[in-house]
Task: structure prediction
Amino acid sequence: MNSTPMRRSLQGKTLRWDLIVLSWSWLAGCFGALGGASSALPELLPASCEIDLALSAAPEHLRAAASVYALEEQGFVRVVEGDGAFTCIVNRDDPRVLKPTCFDAEGAATIVPKILLFGERMMAGDPIEKIREEVESAFASGRFVSPRRPGVAYMLSRYNRPWNGTDRRLGWFPPHVMFYAPNLTNEEIGHSMAHHDPNRPLPRIGYGGPHGYMIMISDDGTRRSRSDLTDCPDWVHAD
Result:
């Protein structure tokens, strides 16, 4: 089994950075027809696949020094001990999803613990709603805290597969970057869909609440390829 992390270069490409307005109707339009019923437990990936998938979220120059978690039978385990500030993990807040994310030191300290809890509880077979209630209680008690300073979480992978509760499908979401914006609302940043101009999109808050983000798309148009993640099973690449 090849455990060498992915090192696909983006040198020479011009990245396009656009502010994106995230509405549920827009998200539904982006999601593809990858649907399927949720399984009781997340499907485990080969370690080499999960490492490559997690690292695909980060800019290439940050990957070599990043720490990496992989989901195993008892939950997430740190399988790469990096000497840099970033921590990469395939976030799974539902058994159906894959959300490769690389957090800076602040995110690793304040957001990754929530992800680790989700992984542990899901692999134990706990219902998602029960886990979410535990997370809410952990924030209320101070066990979990919001990011304490500005920072960044990279989600530059082309294999980000969220679950859309509106049309009940899995699908692709484009590479993007998230900046910590705990408890910030769209109203506070002046966002209004009534004044949305698709040619000049404004930022919008995603995943609102104590671990909320302001989101920007970062997509250079490169298409997914089976050669990107050679150790991953076919369902990770499925269209």
Q: What stands out?
A: The longest helix spans residues 128-141.
